[in-house]
């Protein structure tokens, strides 16, 4: 059986432009935050993100404009912090750089 454990660097090397990433966790809890931070060091773009309630790990990818599409039920950072600021920044403004897919 092939080994499934790999380094963070090896994992981020698997990500290519346009991929759909299912990011686990729930808002501010159990997010792969270090993975997203490491991914910001890679020149990937046009990533799609999906999750029931993506949080800070997905928000990092939107704030760096590496992700451009989100499939979600709620995208935020818990009640105290509100909606995800990186996602809002990417989706609002004169020239939006991201979109939410309706009916997700």
Blueprint (SSEs and pairs):
Layout: H1 8-13, E1 20-22, H2 33-39, E2 47-51, H3 56-63, E3 67-72, H4 78-81, H5 85-91, E4 99-100
Parallel strand pairs: 1-2, 2-3, 3-4
Report what the structure shows.
- The chain is of the alpha/beta class and 104 residues long.
- It has a single domain (8-100), classed as Glutaconate Coenzyme A-transferase, CATH 3.40.1080.
- Helix content is 31%, strand content 15%.
- The protein contains five helices and four strands, in the order H-E-H-E-H-E-H-H-E.
- Strands 1-2-3-4 form a four-stranded parallel sheet, covered by helices on one side.
- Helix 2 (33-39) links the parallel strand 1 and strand 2 (47-51).
- The longest helix is centred in the middle third of the chain and has 8 residues, at 56-63.
- It is globular.
- The model has no long low-confidence stretch (mean pLDDT 87).
